[in-house]
Amino acid sequence: LPPGVYGPECVPGNPRTDWASDVAFIGSWQSYAHQEHWPDRRRLLTYAKERWGEAVQFWPRRGHGAVRSQHLNDLLASVKVVLGDSCLASTSTRYWSDRCFETVGRGGFVVHPYIEGLAELLPDGFGVAYYPPDDLERMGELVDWWRAHDRAREEAVVEGQAFVRERHTYEHRMESMLDTLKAEGAF
């Protein structure tokens, strides 16, 4: 089953001025468990720092744990565009983390590498915009467009959050699994 998001957490966050930024990366930015892909992640992070300077923020803050629960919703409500990444985006199809569903479902807008299968489940424009894997220039162009068009982004966030809440929660994933088991005669 594809990843999902916990349905009760698909609610808008409360923007905080101390967390506000135009662009943010939320995830492993100080080190990365997939060491074989760390050079790619580092290239994305370096590009972001060089392109957006102080306009980009990195979460969690140095020395702090992951941002979770309602704090994550509040962070997403405080950021215009989240930078997405997937360690296997350029080498795999139909594999991705829960990053897109979590970000969009909790009320954020993410610019993410295109991955076959993901875009079928979460269409471009529903809280997400896709760029070709490893094409950081295209990523930058998309981020700049979406951060400059507040109304379009805000509409995409509302539509995306509703889309995820209606189709991609863990409850939906369990229903799909049970339907498959029933169809196979498991019960």
The overall strand count is 5
Helix tally?
7
Record the strand order, biggest sheet. 2-1-3-4-5
Query: How would you describe the shape?
Result: globular
The largest sheet, given as strand count, sense and whether it forms a barrel, is: 5 strands, parallel
Strand content: 5-15%
Helical residue percent band: 40-55%
| Termini gap | 19 Å
Radius of gyration: 16 Å
Mean pLDDT score:
92
**Spans of 5+ residues with little confidence (pLDDT < 50)?**
none
Class from secondary-structure proportions: alpha/beta
The helix-strand sequence is: EHEHEHEHEHHH
List keywords for this structure.
187 residues, alpha/beta, 5-stranded parallel sheet, 7 helices, 43% helix
Write a structural description:
There is one protein chain. The chain is of the alpha/beta class. Helices cover 43% and strands 12% of the residues. The chain contains seven helices and five strands. A five-stranded parallel β-sheet has the order 2-1-3-4-5, sandwiched between helices. The longest helix is centred in the C-terminal third of the chain and has 18 residues, at 150-167. The radius of gyration is 16 Å and the shape is globular. The relative contact order is 0.18. The mean pLDDT is 92.
